[in-house]
Amino acid sequence: MSGEISVIGLLFEAGIIVQAVMLTLVGMSIVSWAMIFQRRKVLKLASAEAKRFEDKFWSGIDLSKLYTEVSARGQVTGLEALFKSGFKEFIRLHKNNRQAGAVMEGTQRAMRVGLSREVERLETHLPFLATVGSISPYIGLFGTVWGIMNSFIALGSVQQATLNMVAPGIAEALIATAMGLFAAIPAVVAYNKFSHQVELLESSYFNFVEEFSNILHRQAGNTTGEAA
């Protein structure tokens, strides 16, 4: 208990610059943890939705019926959004009696745009986590250097220096470094984990776009042959 009180005391007795550094690091840590929990929820939901939609897509359901179901839900994300944008563009171009090549070019373009938007949505807040992970140790180090510098400056004004005089200043300065690491380590771990999950989802989305394009290409080719 005494150790805890001593640390708290050091925090309150620290210089204004060191306190500002500590408050900055605490704020960054709180925001990054909020984003970590939010991203974890979003990516977990995205993975579950992707698996559920793939199972339904490959179950043999009629594409027009599936499109009607997806459109009825309004705003959709993930694979459903890619399917909706691709099939919608396919139907629009096909009704205009476009050639199979033109139909597929427009359909793939629509799905590529949708894929880019979905990846951007999944990567939301990841740059902030990367920033926290990279700069927090340096902010903490700045507070440490500043606190130790002030401690040695204060020693210059006394005749005889003792450990008791310099220890509190050095201790409060080192707390800033510890807080910088406390803010940085979870942010780096979360960023690496979430980036890997986004890469896996992006790969899954890309594979779906390719496979769906092949299915639509066969339909466009068959219809063109029939029309000929």
Descriptive terms for the model:
228 residues, single chain, disordered C terminus, disordered N terminus, mainly alpha
Structure in a nutshell:
With 228 residues, this protein is mainly alpha-helical. It is built from 7 helices and no strands. The N terminus and C terminus are likely disordered.
Description of the molecule:
With 228 residues, the protein is mainly alpha-helical. It has one domain (2-227). Helices cover 88% and strands 0% of the residues. It has seven helices and no strands. It has helices spanning 2-13, 16-57, 63-72, 78-95, 100-122, 126-155, 163-227. α4 packs parallel to α7 (163-227). The longest helix is centred in the C-terminal third of the chain and has 65 residues, at 163-227.
